[in-house]
Design goal:
A hairpin with a 2-residue loop joins strand 8 and strand 9. About 50% of the residues are buried. It contains eight helices and nine strands. The mean pLDDT is about 95. It is globular. Strands 3-2-1-4-5-6-7-8-9 form a nine-stranded mixed beta sheet, sandwiched between helices. Helices cover about 35% and strands about 20% of the residues. With about 260 residues, the protein is an alpha/beta fold. The protein has a single domain, classed as Ribokinase (UDP-N-acetylmuramoyl-L-alanine:D-glutamate ligase).
Length: about 260
């Protein structure tokens, strides 16, 4: 038998469109040569236009799913997406505490691309208190960066990133999709400030699942043994290529084509 590929465990909510959420994580991780494991945190009702509802699973079921699979299969990285509730965030943090050497990529999903709220204030506080200290890489967009930092809507992003790093996450990758300009600039910060900045041509149209794709790609590259900065660089390139090759199956946003290379 051949040896196992690197294993990545994703905690996320199900998205019926396959564009974001757990389905996006599984597609991305598999396309990058890793084997995905999954823990379902919530069920959503949504289409490519927006989210109509979220039903969070009970925290005990989060723990039961995760401990069951982790007792059987060693993982090389964790990826966290929409968790559904503050209690679920605490449950996931307790699981991560049992695996302190395994890198954690946290995509703090606070709202849908349309702006539908996906995390209440209690969940936001749980992310800050329990999960940011466990995160190796945090991947917020500029709106999420300011909200997580409890800052004003026009607050300085480098200052917000420093504030988030002080809460315990080792690296903060602030994505610039929601900022103005012909290019999308993503900036990686560490405890001592900016480490790298990458600019990408802004693609036309709106995309569903770009943040999930980027975070899952970082987790996959970390699982494959890349250093942080190189994992972040390659994950950005992969995500941009997947968006460029994206398609519009419904009446709303485009979906990334995570298997663009298969053509």
């Amino acid at each position: 038998m051949s040896s196992s590929p690197p294993i990545v465990l994703a905690f996320a909510a199900a998205d019926p469109t396959g564009g974001a959420g757990l389905q996006a994580d599984l597609l991305t991780i598999a396309s990058l040569g890793c084997h995905p494991l999954s823990v379902l945190t919530a069920i959503t009702a949504q289409d490519t236009r927006g989210v109509d509802g979220v039903l969070a699973l009970d925290a005990a079921w989060i723990t039961r799913q995760a401990r069951g699979v982790l007792a059987d299969i060693p993982v090389a990285a964790f990826k966290l997406g929409l968790l559904g509730s503050a209690r679920n965030a605490e449950a996931v943090a307790a699981i991560l505490a049992e695996h302190p050497r395994t890198p954690v990529v946290l995509d703090p999903v606070l709202a849908s691309g349309r702006g539908d709220p996906l995390a209440d204030d209690d969940t936001l506080q749980a992310l800050r208190a329990f999960l940011l200290p466990r995160a190796t890489v945090l991947t917020p967009n500029s709106l999420e960066t300011r909200r997580l930092a409890l800052a004003a809507p026009d607050a300085d992003l480098p200052g917000c990133a420093r504030a988030l790093a002080k809460l315990g996450c080792r690296y903060v990758l602030v994505t610039g999709t929601h900022e103005a300009g012909a290019q999308v600039t993503n900036t990686l910060y560490g405890a001592d400030g900016r480490l790298r900045e990458d600019a990408w041509p802004r693609l036309p149209g709106d995309y569903h699942g770009s943040g999930c794709t980027l975070a899952s790609a970082i987790a996959a590259f970390l699982a494959r043994g890349l250093a942080i900065e190189e994992a972040v660089r390659q994950a950005q390139d992969y995500t941009w290529q997947a968006l460029k090759a994206g398609f519009r199956p419904g009446r709303g946003q485009h979906l990334p084509n995570r298997f663009f290379g298969a053509k």
